[in-house]
């Protein structure tokens, strides 16, 4: 009869560390949760949530104000950006809500190409309480 081979006991499994055991781990976990929530709320290629106009948006509006005023038949110096939203395309589309009178607003779609050129892609005159959306 043969003797059974001698087997060594299985090696102990390494202890699993949790990120939350360390101060940096807690921050890491919070960051991951924040990123997951942000990505869940975004659509790829979709229009993001609207936000108050920034200095960059004011500069874009200033570049296309003359063209927008001519097309919409309003005064160029009366166009003031209020809020905007952006869409990533082969470049960037900016949808900007602008004041151009007491009860009228002008919605502009401004396209900024990858090389930095800025053009007015579209516009529409709306009432004051019309929400900003894709057009």
What is shown here, in short?
The protein contains two helices and five strands.
Multimerization state: single chain
Helix/strand order, N-terminal first: HEHEEEE
Into which percent range does the helicity of residues fall?
A: 25-40%
Give the structural class. alpha+beta
Number-wise, the strands total 5
Strand order of the largest sheet: 1-2-3-4-5
Low-confidence stretches: none
Report strand %: 25-35%
Count of helices? 2
Describe the structure.
- This protein is α+β, with helices and mostly antiparallel strands.
- It has helices at residues 23-41, 55-72; strands spanning 51-52, 80-89, 91-99, 104-112, 118-127.
- Strand 3 and strand 4 (104-112) form a beta hairpin.
- It is rod-shaped.
Q: How do the helices and strands line up, and which of them pair or pack?
A:
Layout (H helix, E strand, L loop, with lengths): L22 H19 L9 E2 L2 H18 L7 E10 L1 E9 L4 E9 L5 E10 L8
Antiparallel strand pairs: 1-2, 2-3, 3-4, 4-5
Task: Write out key terms for the chains shown.
single chain, 135 residues, alpha+beta, five-stranded antiparallel β-sheet, 2 helices
């Amino acid at each position: 009869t043969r003797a059974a081979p001698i087997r060594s006991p299985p090696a102990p499994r390494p202890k699993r560390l949790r990120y939350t055991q360390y101060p940096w781990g807690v921050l890491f976990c919070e960051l991951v949760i924040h990123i997951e929530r942000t990505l869940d709320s975004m659509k790829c290629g979709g229009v993001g949530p609207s936000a108050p106009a920034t200095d960059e948006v004011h500069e874009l509006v200033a570049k296309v104000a003359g063209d927008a005023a001519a097309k919409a038949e309003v005064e160029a110096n009366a166009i003031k950006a209020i809020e905007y939203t952006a869409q990533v395309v082969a470049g960037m589309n900016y949808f900007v809500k602008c004041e151009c009178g007491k009860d009228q607003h002008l919605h502009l779609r401004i396209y900024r190409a990858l090389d930095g050129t800025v053009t007015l892609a579209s516009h529409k005159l709306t009432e004051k309480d019309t929400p900003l959306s894709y057009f």
